[in-house]
UniProtKB/TrEMBL annotation:
Organism phylogeny: Bacteria, Bacillati, Actinomycetota, Actinomycetes, Mycobacteriales
InterPro entries xref list: NTF2-like_dom_sf (IPR032710), SnoaL-like (IPR037401)
Domain SnoaL-like per the UniProt entry, residue ranges: 13-106
SUPFAM superfamilies (UniProt xref): NTF2-like
Alphabetical list of Pfam families matching this protein: SnoaL_2 (PF12680)
Protein name according to UniProt: Nuclear transport factor 2 family protein
């Protein structure tokens, strides 16, 4: 008897998350729809090229990661984590993903931009 496994929305998003946070943006984009829309602080990214450029600019600055929570249903996933950028290790980030046809079609990214600003002199 052959056992079939079904990929859940959470599986897809976690595979995407593991790929980009390990620096493999190309692999991460395999999980993303061509017409993705991302709402990020200060930017609306439309399309895989714009989204890939955004990830490609951020991923190399990542020095580590602390995952805090991941949960979802059939079409939506929420991640909550601390991206480590240099000395900053406790500035939270959250993402809400909507999947369509097994691909990430929408992403709402929330993080505190001021946490990543240079310190006040």
């Amino acid at each position: 008897m052959t056992q079939q496994t079904q990929t859940t929305a959470l599986d897809t998003v976690l595979a995407y998350h593991r790929a980009w946070t390990s620096g493999d943006v190309t692999a991460a984009l395999e999980y993303v729809a061509d017409n993705i829309v991302c709402q990020a602080p200060g930017a609306e990214l439309i399309g895989k090229d714009a989204y890939g450029a955004f990830l490609g600019g951020f991923a190399p600055t990542l020095t580590g990661l602390t995952d805090l929570a991941a949960f979802g249903d059939d079409d939506h996933v929420v991640l909550f984590y601390y991206p480590h950028i240099g000395q900053i290790t406790t500035a939270p980030a959250a993402e809400h993903f909507t999947l369509r046809d097994g691909k990430i079609a929408e992403n709402i990214l929330v993080f505190d931009r001021l946490s990543y600003a240079p310190p006040q002199q």
